[in-house]
Design brief:
Blueprint: H1 2-21, E1 25-27, H2 33-48, H3 52-65, H4 70-82, H5 86-99, H6 104-107, H7 120-128, E2 138-143, E3 150-156, E4 161-166, E5 172-175, E6 181-185, E7 195-201, E8 206-211, E9 228-233, E10 239-244, E11 253-258, E12 264-268, E13 273-277, E14 284-290, E15 299-301, E16 307-312, E17 315-320, E18 325-328, E19 343-345, E20 349-354, E21 356-362, E22 369-376, E23 388-391, E24 394-398, E25 421-427
Parallel strand pairs: 1-14
Antiparallel strand pairs: 2-25, 3-4, 4-5, 5-6, 7-8, 8-9, 9-10, 11-12, 12-13, 13-14, 15-16, 16-17, 17-18, 19-20, 20-21, 21-22, 23-24, 24-25
Helix pairs in contact: 2-3, 3-4, 4-5
């Protein structure tokens, strides 16, 4: 009888765990990502049609969807000015300046109606102060392969190897501690497409890799044009498994992070989802299914593996992995945690790529930001610094992905129009 009871108990526990493991977190917002895209397009149509009431209506939707985004604030302020609500426009523009974004200065030149405000020149002068360079990084490596067009990095502490992914060349290079570079995988190996985010699982000696579906050069069969996750053996470079996200709509598996138990969490940008590969099922499954994520990208996990952080256009979400709940990270109105490309967790802080390299210090609970520090801004080598990776107390990152130097056919510009690829590093212990 005891054996039957034990067997029943084991079956019950297994069933409960199976149910918990297969959970999909559903979360909804008042304004969906589709609402945002629709209103964004309609703001420009309204301006072109000189329909300023419609311009104000749709720009207000943008503002409510992304209330901490400098660009959405400026569009809303411009629509207010177009409708002669000058005082309200100035209030919103003061909110913009309080964000201290280095991009504000250029953006203020792009909207016509705020330029007629009587304090416009003062706004420009104040915004220009936030373009001053802040430099705390040094050059770690120079890659002479100019047309690499890199996107992601990963670090293996066992061998002190830095991996760098290539969008155009569809390969991964390895840089040893002496700066020597070799191809970890060759161009197009295993039918890999553009290589994006990567992460090393040091315990299991795997390199996990995101690859996108839509290669503009169409150099593989259409049947292979799906976004996928690849798992490689770190020692041999051989493919262990390919996880394909087949769908009737275009997808973009962009970045990933790995828990201590080997669970992999992957951001999907085009539809704003988060996918998961659990060790026990070893398959690609939907994990977070929100209706308001627009371009989910940066993703990282806390050191205790209890909290997942996912960034998208409007901000960063905190996912409680023990209770499978999700909420927006708390922060002051003078901060914006959206538009993050690379995201990394370091000693209860988040390192984020937002054009600047920024550090957000967290509370002990990890759900709120205490303060913001700019690590690097307007470095002369910057040309879209995409992602980075923690290596002990050092942070290595791509300074110049050169993503704007890809032609309409999907080829990199000629070498004379490209720079070498620069990998910078900064010591995070120097920024307490």
């Amino acid at each position: 009888m005891k054996n039957y009871l034990l067997l029943f108990a084991l079956i019950f526990v297994f069933a409960c765990n199976k149910k918990q493991n297969s959970v999909v977190i559903q979360t909804n917002g008042d304004i969906t990502s589709l609402d945002f895209i629709d209103s964004y397009n309609k703001t420009f149509n309204a301006v072109n049609d000189s329909n300023y009431n419609e311009y104000l209506k749709h720009s207000e939707t943008l503002y409510n969807y992304a209330p901490h985004d400098f660009a959405m604030k400026i569009i809303y302020a411009d629509a207010l000015a177009a409708n002669e609500h000058y005082d309200e426009s100035k209030v919103i523009l003061n909110e913009v300046l309080a964000l201290h974004s280095h991009l504000t200065y250029d953006r203020l030149h792009q909207n016509q109606f705020i330029q007629h405000l009587d304090n416009y020149n003062d706004l420009l002068q104040q915004a220009s102060k936030d373009t001053a360079a802040i430099n705390n990084s040094s050059l770690a490596y120079t890659i002479g392969e100019k047309d690499l067009i890199p996107e992601g990095v990963a670090f293996d502490s066992k061998t002190n190897t830095l991996f760098v992914s290539s969008i155009i060349k569809r390969k991964i290079i390895a840089i040893d501690s002496d700066g020597n570079t070799t191809d970890f995988i060759q161009s197009g190996q295993d039918d890999i497409l553009s290589v994006l985010g990567m992460e090393v699982d040091e315990k299991r000696r795997h390199l996990w890799v995101c690859s996108e579906w839509d290669n503009p050069r169409k150099i593989v069969a259409d049947s292979l044009l799906y976004s996928s996750v690849y798992k490689y053996d770190l020692e041999s470079g051989s493919l262990i498994k390919k996880y394909v996200l087949k769908d009737t709509t275009q997808r973009l598996l962009n970045d990933l992070t790995i828990a201590n138990d080997g669970t992999v969490y992957i951001s999907e940008s085009l539809k704003g989802k988060v996918y998961i590969i659990r060790p026990e099922t070893d398959s690609l499954e939907l994990f977070i299914n929100p209706n308001y994520f627009y371009y989910a990208n940066g993703i990282t996990i806390s050191d205790d593996n209890k909290t997942l952080y996912v960034s998208h256009f409007t901000g960063t979400e905190v996912v409680d992995l023990e209770n499978n709940t999700i909420k927006k990270i708390k922060h002051a109105n003078t901060m914006n945690t959206g538009r993050v490309d690379g995201l990394a967790f370091y000693k209860n802080s988040l390192i984020a790529h937002q054009g600047d390299i920024v550090r957000y210090y967290l509370t002990e609970t990890g759900d709120s930001i205490i303060k913001k520090e700019i690590i690097e801004r307007n470095n002369p080598l910057f040309e879209i610094p995409t992602t980075g990776e923690i290596a002990g107390d050092e942070y290595y990152y791509i300074a110049n992905a050169q993503l704007r130097k890809i032609d309409s056919d999907g080829f990199a510009f000629p070498d004379e129009q490209l720079d070498s690829v620069y990998i910078l590093k900064t010591n995070l212990e120097n920024h307490p």
